[in-house]
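Q: I'm writing up a methods section and want to include an example of the input and output format. Could you take the sequence below and give the corresponding predicted structure tokens, formatted cleanly so I can copy it straight into the document?
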Amino acid sequence: MAGRHLFTSESVAEGHPDKCADQISDAVLDAIIANDRKARVDCETLIMQGTIVVTGQITTASYVNIKQVVREVLKDIGFNNAKDGLDWETCGVLTSIEEQSPDIAMGVNGPIEELGAGDQGLVFGYATKETPQLMPLPIMLAHGIVKKLADVRKQGTLPYLRPDGKSQVTVEYDDGRPRRVDTVVVAAQHNETAEEKQVKEDVVEKVAKQVIPRELIDKSTRFIVNGTGRFVIGGTLADSGLTGRKIIVDTYGGVGAHGGGCLSGKDATKVDRSGSYMARYIAKNIVAAGLADKCQVQIAYAIGVAKPVSFMVDTFGTGKVTDESITTAADEVFDMRPGIIIRDLDLLRPIFRKTACYGHFGREDPDFTWEKTDRTDALRRRLE
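A: Here is the clean output for your methods example:
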């Protein structure tokens, strides 16, 4: 987009009810595949006040104490007070699990090269030169703020904070380049004794300004902390939580397109997850190779069919060669069959709970294999 414009992205804290649900679903997935790499998992979690409901379709040869997994996640997040809506020791945990449909299983079992997609669906990947992580700046700053909220709470720097919270960052762009941060909105749950003025000062100085680069802040930058003035009643006392309700937070913060499917709680035969990781992998390598300043990739699948039904690359006019040429090169370099994605990105490991908060993309962690840029030379060679 040419000229000046504002763009906003949000993130939510690890104690937000929806994010609690995502983390529980992925923790269950991790516990299962740690013992059974062939398991099929589609785990959903519902949270409301003092009750957790874990449901879904799971086929596995291993045993997992789901109630224990749930309590460990809640304890780690910091839910140790029923006044916040949940106490990890005393909350109710209900389970209702069925096996995967045999009709689906027919298409997702067998040799890895022939492994079919676990469902139909379309996924998108995105990358941009805006940040070192090749991610949009607004979502990276928003994630950084809620991560910092958790850090200062757990480290005791701001001990009055509680687990729930949100952030929202508005960035001003000029001819497609981020110039400054226009507005920062933070909702930080706190206990009853915290003073409104102190919370606002602390969150601005010890959280937001520790994350946002100084050169992006000016005298016109606005900081809005707990806009209603008070945020004591939060977490599951104020809202229910459900797996998969924060798919824009999980991906690119509203930049680009989204296929609509959530990622958490699903094993890698589900292309909502593995296909999304591959789409990011492809887009990031295209930008890292210098073939475009920004790039969006779409992959679409049919249930039980290994090869994608469509693949598209869009560089929004920033490509150094035609999008058609890049699409052809990428199709030759990357094998987008689900089984090969699982093999190449090493997705049969218990690494998924940590993806469930602070975004699935742009993370500098070796377990996030879809963030590697190891195919840049291969792409360039095919375009010589």
